Amino acid sequence: MQSTENINKCDVLVIGGGPAGATISTKLAQMGRDVVMLEKEQHPR
């Protein structure tokens, strides 16, 4: 069983860093939300 001590918490988890994911992540962060965005590719391409 994993320990929960090392789990980070966030308000919003965005899957995908494309145009929509990047936009919503930015907007939510500007509104004061703690946002984590996951992207499988390395950017910039």
How would you describe the overall organization of this protein?
With 45 residues, the chain is an alpha+beta fold. It has one helix and two strands, in the order E-H-E. It has a two-stranded parallel ribbon. The longest helix has 12 residues. The mean pLDDT is 85.
Euclidean distance between termini CA atoms: 37 Å
H-E string: EHE
How many domains? 1
Note the beta-strand portion: 15-25%
**How would you write the strand order of the largest sheet?**
1-2
Structure annotation, total helices: 1
For the CA atoms, what is the radius of gyration? 13 Å
What is the overall shape? Answer: flat
> Which segments are poorly predicted (pLDDT under 50) over 5 or more consecutive residues?
none
**What is the assembly state of the chains in this entry?**
single chain
What's a concise summary of this model?
By secondary structure, the chain is of the alpha+beta class. The protein has one helix spanning 19-30, and strands at 12-15, 35-38. It has one domain.
Secondary-structure map:
Blueprint (H helix, E strand, L loop, with lengths): L11 E4 L3 H12 L4 E4 L7
Parallel strand pairs: 1-2
Keywords:
two-stranded parallel ribbon, 2 strands, 27% helix, alpha+beta, flat, 45 residues
